[in-house]
Amino acid sequence: MGQLLSAAAERAMKVQEVILKAMAKSITWWQAAEILGISVRSMRRWRARYERSGYDGLVDRRKGRPSPKRIPVAELEQVLTLYRQTYFDFNVRHFHEKLREEHGIELSYTWVKKALQGAGLVKRQIRRQKHRKRRPRRPLPGMMLHIDGSTHRWFQQGRSWDLIVLLDDATNEIYYAQIVDQESTQTVMAALKHVIENYGWFCSIYSDRASHFFETSKAGARVNLDHVTQVGRAMRELGIQMIPSYAPQGRGRSERNFRTWQGRLPQELRLRGITRVDTANEFLKTIYVEEFHRKFKVAPAQTGTAFVPLQRQDLNRVFSVHHDRVVNQDNTVQIAHKVLQIEPTSVRTTLAGCRVTVYEHLDDTLSIGYGPHTVGRYTLDGILIPEKPITELALKRVGANSFQKETSAARATPRQKQRVMSRARCSVI
């Protein structure tokens, strides 16, 4: 209180000194107003009050009066108690939203922030400098997608997990968000395959230079475009451009997006008592992503979409890890100390000496491909998975069109029937 009175007294003394100089004609009244930072009209009022009441007329008349905008003490205590007991790990913006949505407390964000800082519950942060030159967003959804992973303790206790997110540059829409054990080639492929199957074929993907995206000669070096990774090979097969980022600032939207996730998702999982990965992923798909869109999704600059439906039927092969092999004389293929025995096929009598591709699929199975044909499917332990019986429904679904083009069912030769069965078997497997 003494400091407030001292400040008021210093202010009054400064005003008195300026008024006396103006009355002594040392400065003009216009210059006096400029020194005090007030208008000429206010300067005339200050002069009249000084001539009428002397020094006492220069004291601010609002001193000692309570502000008409003050918040009741009970409401302040309620806000601080809610933060201490329930929302202690929320950031200020997230807590402010909860006050409005869950408790009906309509206070400004600035007031809540200053109250928490004044009570020592939130640290004062240095204001982040402006990003003065920001890359404009792509005008249409599907023109460029961001993919990245964030390692964090999403369950606030125990070990850290990786969160893989795919979002659109034009709208901030989240196309994929899953917590996984570790960001890897398989988990990244699963995310890309999900987006293509559910949304369509997109134009480009923007990512960091992790080893499953690009090959680099050394850390921090430029990417080697002549040697592609398994993810790069899949994107090249689909004609999707991969754009490497050479600085965190280049991934600004993705980085800010993850700061938002780290400041909100662990708290939402704690409030709901979610401690398992599968339950958390279900919560992301059914509830959290939609809530995220309501708050952070933006409208694209242009109407329409750059997504195109993809008609390819071999996405299970595209999004798998490829291993080139040569078949041994006993019709076996060796991979990772496992021997895969190829059974007799209708493609040719023997595959000995033929070049084949072993596909390591996302569902933890292996298959051997000879051109467009699948000649065997196995578990990760190398055990042969029996072929699924080809039902009439599968035959109609897969081979009916080509069968009708070649000949009718009544006039089909054994060779034509065998060709249709082979197509159906490859598709079903």
Task: Provide a count of the helices.
Answer: 13
Give the overall shape: elongated
Instruction: Tell me the number of strands.
Output: 11
SSE arrangement, N to C: HHHHHHEEEHEHEHHHEEEEEEHH
Largest sheet: 5 strands, mixed
List the strand order in the largest sheet.
3-2-1-4-5
User: What fold name stands as the CATH topology of the largest domain?
Assistant: Nucleotidyltransferase, domain 5
* Rg of Cα set: 35 Å
Number of domains: 5
Give the uncertain stretches in residue-range form. Answer: 402-410, 424-429
Could you describe the 3D structure shown?
The protein is α+β, with helices and mostly antiparallel strands. The chain has five domains: 57 residues; 46 residues; 152 residues, Ribonuclease H-like superfamily/Ribonuclease H (Nucleotidyltransferase, domain 5), CATH 3.30.420; 60 residues, no CATH class; 37 residues. 41% of the residues lie in helices and 15% in strands. The chain is built from 13 helices and eleven strands. The strands form three sheets. The protein has a five-stranded mixed β-sheet, with helices on both faces. Helix 1 packs antiparallel against helix 2 and helix 2 crosses helix 3. The longest helix is centred in the first third of the chain and has 22 residues. The radius of gyration is 35 Å and the shape is elongated. The N and C termini lie far apart (83 Å). The C terminus is likely disordered.
